[in-house]
Design brief:
The protein is mostly helical. Helix content is 64%, strand content 0%. The protein is built from 5 helices and no strands. α2 packs across α5.
Length: 107
């Protein structure tokens, strides 16, 4: 638009294209790490420090390395999680669709 706002938008096609390979694995990795932190913090007296939620642009558009660096995650741990999570997440989504529509599941 000339004012620089167009550069900050995340288009729907980016979200859709990155759903299984970036957004969902990153979100599930964040949630799994958040749960682990909450368990260790439950023994602590101070629970005021809440984990920082990853911004959408980091989930959708950043490289894996940038995502891990910005969120403070070990890159190797994320890659291992991602390799295991992508097939599971795709199957889960396809299973939900199958239940609703009867459409076959791609394996």
């Amino acid at each position: 638009f000339g004012d620089g706002t167009a550069d900050k938008r995340i288009r729907g096609r980016y979200i859709a294209a990155s759903l299984y390979n970036r957004l969902l694995p990153r979100w599930h990795f964040f949630v799994s790490r958040d749960r682990a932190e909450m368990k260790t913090m439950s023994n602590s007296v101070s629970t005021s420090s809440q984990p920082r939620l990853p911004p959408l642009h980091l989930l959708v558009m950043a490289s894996d390395e940038v995502f891990c660096k910005d969120m403070g995650f070990a890159y190797k741990d994320y890659l291992e999680f991602k390799d295991e999570a992508i097939p599971r997440l795709k199957f889960s989504s396809q299973f939900d669709t199958w239940l609703k529509t009867g459409r076959p599941i791609d394996l």
